[in-house]
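Quick log. Single chain, no ligands specified.
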Amino acid sequence: MKLHSVKVHPSKALLAREDQLAWKIAGVAADKVTVQKPVAEMIINRIIDNAAVAIASVNRPAPTSARQMALGNARKGGAAIFGLPGSKGFSPEWAAWANGTAVRELDMHDTFLAADYSHPGDNIPPILAVAQTLGRSGRDLIRGIATGYEIQVDLVKAICLHEHKVDHIAHLGPSAAAGIGTLLGLKQEVIYQAVQQALHTTVTFRQSRKGEISSWKAFAPAHAGKLAVEAVDRAMRGEGAPSPIYEGEDSVIAWVLSGRSNRADVYGPDYYQVPLPEKGEAKRAILDTYTKEHSAEYQSQALIDLAFRMRGKIEDMEAIESIVIHTSHHTHYVIGTGANDPQKMDPKASRETLDHSIMYIFAVALQDGSWHHEASYAPRRANRADTVRLWHKVETREDAEWTRRYHSVDPAEKAFGARVEIRMKDGTVLVDEMAVANAHPLGARPFEREHYIRKFEEMTGDILAPRESARFLEVVQDLPRLAAGELHLLNPALPRGALAEGKPGIF
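-> predicted structure:
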């Protein structure tokens, strides 16, 4: 890997495109390196993972609305939509929209956390939709997805968006555009323009994850994927983009992120150092990412597992006086009491809000000893009187050591957990901690192929017909051998009449 310095340049400097981050990203995408076998195997795992959570959410309101919008954009030989037969085709940007929303709805697919945070599996729907539409092979798809993950992870390692209240889809637009560029074997110049267009159109703000969190949280990555498909389409037709999109004096870094000259005392002469593979170097970033066993924000994963472990030492939940979660800055301020969001303590809050309340999540996990993507968020569950009492006894506090470990570049000590102190009314204090979730690569039960398959079967068992489930799992595990035009087989279909219909709109 090579670090690339990225900072703002005045227009009169005439920064050469070879010195621009977007050009370097495009160079990685255009580099025809072989995808290593562990990477290809993990890509298969993540396609299974995406399908599991998408099918499980397919009839929820947001995925239903997204699908209904896409149905108005049928295209012969186009991309497939989750739940519908693969023989039915749709325009790729709209299929990416529908499938991306279904994948994101339950907040239960893969994650990568560093300077910023992301769900790299969000790259798969737009790349797959284009691959299906243009008749690409399984190997083509693998190459494209490897690039999408690589660029996503590299940007997330270097450029913090949430510090400036920018939503993380601003890294997804460029990564998905780069992945599509690799898939299609496009020239560096074309990918360069597409990456810039994709970034320019996907800068949105973090109010989508603040206060009363709405269904837009599920739509946001699908929106970025849709815009990435459109950006590549325009670039293929010879259309240009705002340039330099990262380094220009009126660019994203200059006015939205940390690039103004008056921040040099904080950020130094080069505001960002972005790692990218050198020419000929394999794209392995997907191996740094991790999926979720539980349907909740990633910082909740270890704490859910910790709650399961601690509950065995508590005979009477009503005997709890207080619960203090000592954790990282991010956990405290995004999903903890440091967010100062009263909605995170409200039993009438939306599912999306409860999903971002570690106080609620820890209380329910402690009481139930289990977690379910629907039952654990049901209004009746959230409004249970004993749960509300326990929930309101939970607070979070930032701990400098957990913050340091959260940002560590050493995988062996990087942590997303916490130390929990449960004080009983008799003065007894129970203390335990967990650094990473059980399903994390360094956890007690790292996810491997068998776990992805089990997750798929458990989440879709009452939705898909057994024959369809078995068909999909057989096909996806044979991905490298799928020929051009066969990628529609990666689409699990529900029985006829099983898909919900949403409210009418424009499309």
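Residues 298-434 form a domain with the 60s Ribosomal Protein L30; Chain: A; fold (CATH 3.30.1330.120).
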